[in-house]
Specification:
eight-stranded parallel barrel, binds 1,3-dihydroxyacetonephosphate, 16% strand, alpha/beta, TIM Barrel
Length: 252
């Protein structure tokens, strides 16, 4: 199974800086045995695409989508519009969207299904808050979020989906969830997929870890069974740091 590393810039880098990041990242020596993508703000997709030229690495990812087909949804962006840009992955249900923008499990499910229909790989983010973690509710919350998110996916689709376990308390806090603990949660996600979908999909689904990943801890996660890559925030903002992180993750 090929590992997947996704840079999530969040709300950083308009078109000018996005183009510069891509050009700098293309100068990095990158491992060939790993998939790499970068999730850029919608307004920067065109500049990122132009700076990529014919290069296919990193793959382009979006950070959000609306579930409707083209229509009267002012301000929103459809999966088919993302497809026109050659977007291969799109994040859905990031905890910042759930908490700041009020995104619900049902909205996440609709977005994931719309992406899958358009042939874009949804990267479904799940994670418990600090309060839920302290109350020992992690597995319950993850089971709920996972069950809801896959409810509208098509088991026969050729377009796979990816999960990212991002404990909210570890995002941007410098407190990464210990790899063994993350592995246990990944097993919960895989278990739900096996039960609600099927064994084959559960075996193949990539489950990434995200939350305070950096150059010093990435290798530990990627050598832990059941962790198939990482979703990286802060440590992806500098293209050279992210390049080093990719090399550290998977020496070629
Ligand atoms: P940090 O890597 O900055 O903790 O962010 C993680 C994240 O939210 C990626 O989507």
């Amino acid at each position: 199974m090929r590992m997947l590393l996704i840079a999530n810039w969040k709300m950083h880098y308009g078109p000018i800086k996005a183009g510069g990041w891509i050009r700098a990242f293309r100068r990095e020596r990158l491992p060939k045995n790993i998939d790499i993508a970068v999730a850029v703000p919608h307004v920067s997709l065109a500049a990122a695409r132009a700076s990529l030229g014919r290069a296919s690495i990193p793959a382009l990812a979006a950070q959000d989508v609306f579930w409707g087909e083209d229509g009267p949804y002012t301000g929103e962006i459809s999966a088919s519009m993302l497809d026109e840009f050659g977007v291969q992955y799109c994040l859905v249900g990031h905890s910042e969207r759930r908490s700041v923008m009020g995104e619900t499990d049902d909205m996440v499910a609709k977005k994931a299904a719309a992406l899958q229909k358009a042939g874009i790989v949804p990267v479904i983010c799940v994670g418990e808050t600090s309060a839920q973690y302290k109350k020992g509710e992690t597995n319950k919350i993850i089971r709920q979020q996972t069950t809801a998110a896959i409810a509208k996916l098509d088991v026969d689709s050729k377009t796979p989906f990816v999960f990212a376990y991002e404990p909210v308390w570890s995002i941007g806090s410098g407190k990464a969830c210990p790899a063994q603990k993350a592995k246990e949660v990944h097993d919960v996600i895989r278990g739900v997929i096996q039960k609600k979908m099927n064994e084959n999909i559960a075996e193949k689904v990539l489950i990434l870890y995200g939350g305070s990943i950096d150059v010093n801890n990435i290798a530990e996660y990627l050598t832990t069974t059941g962790i198939n890559g990482a979703l990286v925030g802060g440590a992806s903002l500098d293209p050279r740091v992210f390049g080093l992180l990719c090399r550290t993750a998977m020496p070629s």
